[in-house]
Amino acid sequence: xxxxxxxxxxxxxxxxxxxxxxxxxxxxxxxxxxxxxxxxxxxxxxxxxxxxxxxxxxxxxxxxxxxxxxxxxxxxxxxxxxxxxxxxxxxxxxxxxxxxxxxxxxxxxxxxxxxxxxxxxxxxxxxxxxxxx
Length: 133
Prior knowledge:
Elements: H1 2-5, E1 14-15, E2 19-21, E3 27-29, E4 34-35, E5 39-42, E6 47-49, E7 54-55, E8 60-62, E9 64-66, E10 76-78, E11 81-83, E12 88-89, E13 94-95, E14 100-101, E15 106-107, E16 112-113, E17 122-124, E18 129-132
Parallel strand pairs: 1-4, 2-5, 3-6, 4-7, 5-8, 6-11, 7-12, 8-13, 11-14, 12-15, 13-16, 15-17
Antiparallel strand pairs: 9-10, 17-18
């Protein structure tokens, strides 16, 4: 993983295989992070995962999008993703480009997160909405 990301991965971090990324060098991972199997990180726009984060199997973290207009579809829109401390991202959840997930938040399994998530909240659904504070 250190070769993929270009940074030293903390010994306290566990990443289950298979793990997928399109680039790798724009991923920053903190201490005591657990990334389950089949996670995909599209990281060209940058992905930062702070300490004590749990990421469930099959989750997607995306920092790249395309323009909505037909003539702009091949242009890349890069927007970093930030996962703050002590976040739990459930299985098969999707974090879209530009999203900040606040400290202690929980993303329910299968949620599609299109907007920032406030700290200390639980979000679920498509698109994700706050279901608990």
